[in-house]
C-alpha cells in the first residue's frame, strides 16, 4: 500500500455480510468512514454494531462483501499491516495477566516495533485518559473504569489513521466520558478516521459528524445527527418514544416511553 500510516484512510464496507451460527448478523451493509470524520454506530442490543466494528478491524472475516481501505481490499493485507492502519478497542476484555498499566498501553505500539519515543507516547496516552496516577499499578488491581481508561490509552498510543472503539464510554464516569469524547473529536479534527459504537445518543449527537443507525444487522439510516436521531427513526429502531432537545449544539436525548413490546 503506497501511503504512510500518518496519512488519512478512507474505509469502506461494501455489501458486508456476516453469518454467525445460523443468523445473518450483518446484512449487506454499505458505509464509508472518512478522514476528519467521527462516526457513531448506534442501535439496540444485538443490532450488529460490534459485528460491524469487528469486521472493520479485521477481527472477523466477513462472510460476504468487502472492506476497502483507500480503494484496496483490506482482506488482502498482512495482519501486521492492517494493525498499523487500524487500531481496535473491543467491547470488553479481561486482562490475562497482571502487567502494569504503562506496559499494557505500550502493547498498542507493537505494530510499529520499538519506536524511539515509546516512553513519551505511553505517557502522553496515559495523560489523555487521566491515567498517569496508576501507570505502575497492575491492571488486575484497577477498577472497571480505570482499566477501561488504560485500554483506551492503548488504543490512542499508536499511529494508526483509523481508530475503532466499541462502547468506549461504557464504565467511564461523566468527566472521563466527556474528556474521551473531546479527545476523539480532536483526533478526528486532526485527520484520523474515528468509528465508535455508542449507546449514549446525547454524546453521539453532540460530538459526532455522522451517525449510523443499525437494526437487525442492517443500516436503518445514516447521516448527520439531526437527520438520523429523529423520534421516528429512534422509535422504529428502539421501540421508544423520545425527545431531542438541541441547545447551542448540545443534544439532550430524553427517552419518554415504550412504544411496543421488545423483540430482543
Ligand atoms: N459468537 C457469536 N455466535 C453467534 N451469534 C453471535 C455471536 N456474537 C454475537 N452474535 C449475535 O450477533 C448479533 C449481533 O451481535 P453484536 O454483538 O454485533 O450486537 P451489538 O449491536 O453490538 O449489541 P450490544 O449493544 O448488545 O453490544 C446478535 O444477535 C448476537 O446474538
From TrEMBL:
The keyword Ligase does not apply. InterPro entries: AAA+_ATPase, ABC_transporter-like_ATP-bd, ABC_transporter-like_CS, P-loop_NTPase. The keyword ATP-binding applies. One of its GO terms (molecular function) is ATP binding. Keywords: ATP-binding, Nucleotide-binding. Pfam families: ABC_tran. Residues 9-241 form the ABC transporter domain. This is ABC transporter ATP-binding protein. It comes from Microbulbifer echini.
Amino acid at each position: 500500500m503506497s501511503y504512510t500510516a500518518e496519512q488519512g484512510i478512507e474505509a469502506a464496507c461494501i455489501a458486508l455480510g456476516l453469518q454467525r451460527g445460523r443468523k445473518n448478523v450483518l446484512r449487506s451493509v454499505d458505509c464509508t468512514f472518512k478522514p476528519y470524520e467521527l462516526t457513531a454506530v448506534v442501535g439496540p442490543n444485538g443490532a450488529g454494531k460490534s459485528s460491524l466494528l469487528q469486521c472493520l478491524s479485521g477481527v472477523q472475516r466477513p462472510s460476504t462483501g468487502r472492506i476497502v481501505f483507500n480503494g484496496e481490499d483490506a482482506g488482502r493485507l498482512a495482519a501486521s499491516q492492517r494493525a498499523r492502519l487500524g487500531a481496535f478497542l473491543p467491547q470488553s476484555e479481561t486482562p490475562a495477566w497482571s502487567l502494569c498499566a504503562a506496559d499494557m498501553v505500550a502493547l498498542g505500539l507493537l505494530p510499529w516495533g520499538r519506536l524511539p519515543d515509546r516512553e513519551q507516547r505511553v505517557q502522553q496516552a496515559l495523560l489523555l485518559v487521566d491515567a498517569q496516577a496508576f501507570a505502575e499499578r497492575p491492571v488486575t488491581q484497577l477498577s472497571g473504569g480505570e482499566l477501561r481508561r488504560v485500554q483506551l490509552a492503548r488504543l490512542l498510543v499508536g499511529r494508526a489513521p483509523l481508530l475503532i472503539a466499541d462502547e468506549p464510554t461504557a464504565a467511564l464516569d461523566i468527566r472521563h466520558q466527556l474528556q474521551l469524547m473531546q479527545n476523539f473529536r480532536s483526533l478526528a479534527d486532526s485527520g484520523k478516521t474515528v468509528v465508535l459504537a455508542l449507546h449514549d445518543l446525547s454524546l453521539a449527537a453532540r460530538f459526532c459528524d455522522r451517525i449510523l443507525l443499525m437494526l437487525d444487522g442492517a443500516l436503518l439510516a445514516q447521516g448527520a445527527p439531526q437527520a438520523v436521531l429523529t423520534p421516528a427513526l429512534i422509535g422504529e429502531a428502539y421501540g421508544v418514544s423520545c425527545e431531542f432537545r438541541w441547545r447551542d449544539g448540545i443534544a439532550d436525548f430524553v427517552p419518554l416511553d415504550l412504544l411496543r413490546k421488545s423483540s430482543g
